[in-house]
Amino acid sequence: xxxxxxxxxxxxxxxxxxxxxxxxxxxxxxxxxxxxxxxxxxxxxxxxxxxxxxxxxxxxxxxxxxxxxxxxxxxxxxxxxxxxxxxxxxxxxxxxxxxxxxxxxxxxxxxxxxxxxxxxxxxxxxxxxxxxxxxxxxxxxxxxxxxxxxxxxxxxxxxxxxxxxxxxxxxxxxxxxxxxxxxxxxxxxxxxxxxxxxxxxxxxxxxxxxxxxxxxxxxxxxxxxxxxxxxxxxxxxxxxxxxxxxxxxxxxxxxxxxxxxxxxxxxxxxxxxxxxxxxxxxxxxxxxxxxxxxxxxxxxxxxxxxxxxxxxxxxxxxxxxxxxxxxxxxxxxxxxxxx
Length: 339
Fold this sequence. Notes:
The protein is built from eleven helices and eleven strands. The protein is α+β, with helices and mostly antiparallel strands and 339 residues long. The radius of gyration is 28 Å and the shape is elongated. A hairpin with a 2-residue loop joins strand 3 and strand 4 (60-63). The model is unreliable at 1-50 (pLDDT under 50). It has helices at residues 5-12, 64-75, 82-106, 114-126, 132-141, 146-168, 175-184, 210-228, 233-240, 262-270, 302-332, and strands spanning 19-20, 39-40, 53-57, 60-63, 190-191, 194-203, 251-256, 280-282, 285-295, 298-299, 335-337. It folds into two domains: 5-186 and 303-337, Porin chaperone SurA, peptide-binding domain (Triger factor/SurA peptide-binding fold, Orthogonal Bundle); 193-296, Chitinase A, domain 3.
């Protein structure tokens, strides 16, 4: 799905807006699936001309304009069914409340050269756009101006600093915890069997006549005989294959199971490195497959994923700590939901 400009703004500037705080410490990597983390949106920015207040947090209003912005960010260009709209708004308001609670705590944090850091972050975000106009359009799509954006950035930096000093710095993962996660989650570290293959395709259109199919098969059979006689596979692929891979001598690169059509996959995985298949028919036409490499399924070694596991587990602890903090804070906070 094509990303909207507003989602680029989100990634470029609003780290605290619908971005999980786990992202501060959890590494994205293929072996470990990230679990659900605490999602919050940037604290309310009270704007002139807001159309009503949807909630108050210790007397600080969260207005309808902020709700619309946050909802737009959450949906990222998608349209919700009418019967889901009210539930979505409640979810957004709940996240806005959580974010406001974090901001109110973060206001006590002192950041040296805050204005300079805001300038740097805004400049970094602007670099994501091809020109100034595209940047302004993105800001406008979120019903914002650059003054609002600067305020979001200021609050984002304060919340991030608060989370890092209060939760991240205190989250410690032991060697035993890392090892236990590795030992009890082998599937997360398994690299499936893969092969690398080349092919020569004599393509056949789906509407081809029986005679056209016959001629294509005869050509494939002829090429197979030439290969059996010692012809070079890559040269024949370049001169005869109708697949774009012909430019690379038929090389398809590496692939695992489930990535190719069944007949092709079954044949490829059954070959030994260096072997050439008989002619294989698929919906695309007639293939001759040469296996160039086979990598068996393996479990990634502990030493190679230890750092990532530690980061993942630390992020999980941070998220849990934030959740607990919010639950405790809400017990004494004065929260009014007016939606």
